[in-house]
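Data availability (excerpt). The following record was deposited with the supplementary files.
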Amino acid sequence: MINRVAIALISTAAFCFVQASANTQQLPVYEVARVTTQLKLDGQLSERAWSEVTSVGAFLNNRDGSPSKVTTEARVLYDDKFIYLGFRAVDTNVWATMKRRDEHLWLEEVVEVFLQADPAVPNYIELEVNPLGTMLDIYLLETRKPLHYESWNSEKLRWAVHVVGTVDGKEGDREWTCEIALPLEDVATAPHLPPQPGDRWRMNLYRVERLPQVAELAWSPSLQDDFHVLSKFGEIVFTDHRVPKN
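Predicted structure:
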């Protein structure tokens, strides 16, 4: 029989292994291509520019970084006026009920963008969109310290969603897709606007799924029950690689 000392040593070793894995987590980096003309946002990701660039990579379980069976894809582009984000969320049971801007969308199904242009300045922008096309846009002065939700709305922000199925919480759906165009002028802390090739910003992308199973997924897992962990954000690098719209 294993004695208590041995059990304690095994438990300590396991804890140290988990801690070491967390401390050595490699944060993802994504190179952002420049699109030659502004995208027409209809939520369908059908324009050629999206197919010309790779996805950011797998979305993992945010709490522990493990793989997820819930498929999520995202891509990023930019031009002189906007940074564009496209999401594809495979979903057999699309569900949302909130229709008013700046509601607490994270309580239902949603995709999310966290963007910090200068890691030396704690300001960051959070965007959330649900399958009904409802937007939550927040400007945060530092971690979890936003301007009042309804006191800051991006005036030129554009977005659209497309659902292959119905948003009713019933089985039989296939997926939903989302496009977002965030005006670069809103990213007040950016060293250069528009970004210059080689500029590096911090970013994280998330998806919250409620039906048919609960999942909280991240491009760069925070390894906590919290999305607002800036030190775990990945990086985007702006490039001069150009892709056509059509």
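Summary of structural features: Residues 4-23 form the longest helix (20 residues).
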